[in-house]
Amino acid sequence: MYDGDIASTLVTEQAIREKTAELAAQIAADHSAERSGSGRDSDLLLVGVLKGAVMFMTDLARALPVPVQLEFMAVTSYGSGTSSSGVVRILKDLDRDIAGRDVLIVEDIIDSGLTLSWLLKNLESRQPASLSVCTLLRKPDAVTVDVPVKYVGFDIPNEFVVGYGLDYAERYRDLPFIGTLDPSVYA
Ligand code: XMP
Ligand code: MG
């Protein structure tokens, strides 16, 4: 599949599976601990950011040993080219109110962190009981914009990656691993 397009594998299918199980155990433990103190009794609400987070979100949901509900948002960042501007527009909003809910934003990748920073402010204004973030991948630049990310799968180098939900021109999302793209693809 995609012969010659992938230059290298950065995160294998097995590594993704193992890390997802690890994150799921941690998230479930934290959620149970939080709930037992608060008297809240609602399922954890996963908010996935379309489309990149879909693969990770569905695997994470199945790995979580607690009931979860799924919601999706689609956002687009204004601005030119590949760098995000931090000005975000909602393409698809949540289907329901999140007031009083325990919400976990599920992201594929945090690059500059600008998109996430906007999303956190937006969702926080809807008054969830709690709001945290889980991302499969994080790039070094994310450290410069200080967004609180509780759960991180892998810190990766500052390279463009595809696979497992991540695309280049809508392709490669269906690869089961994370890889770097051969420069011949952009050429
Ligand atoms: P910021 O910079 O706001 O943007 O954190 C995060 C969004 O940018 C996209 N992005 C990538 N998509 N491979 C991709 O397929 C990458 O290496 C990559 N880096 C950033 C992605 O949509 C993410 O949600
Ligand atoms: Mg993309």
UniProtKB/TrEMBL annotation:
Pathway(s): Purine metabolism; GMP biosynthesis via salvage pathway; GMP from guanine: step 1/1; Purine metabolism; IMP biosynthesis via salvage pathway; IMP from hypoxanthine: step 1/1
InterPro entries, per database record: HGPRT, Hxn_phspho_trans, PRTase-like, PRTase_dom
Domain of life: Bacteria
GO cellular component, one term: cytosol
MF-aspect GO terms: guanine phosphoribosyltransferase activity; hypoxanthine phosphoribosyltransferase activity; magnesium ion binding; nucleotide binding
One Pfam family linked to the record: Pribosyltran
Membrane-traversing stretches: none
Protein known as: Hypoxanthine phosphoribosyltransferase
Lineage: Bacteria, Bacillati, Actinomycetota, Actinomycetes, Pseudonocardiales
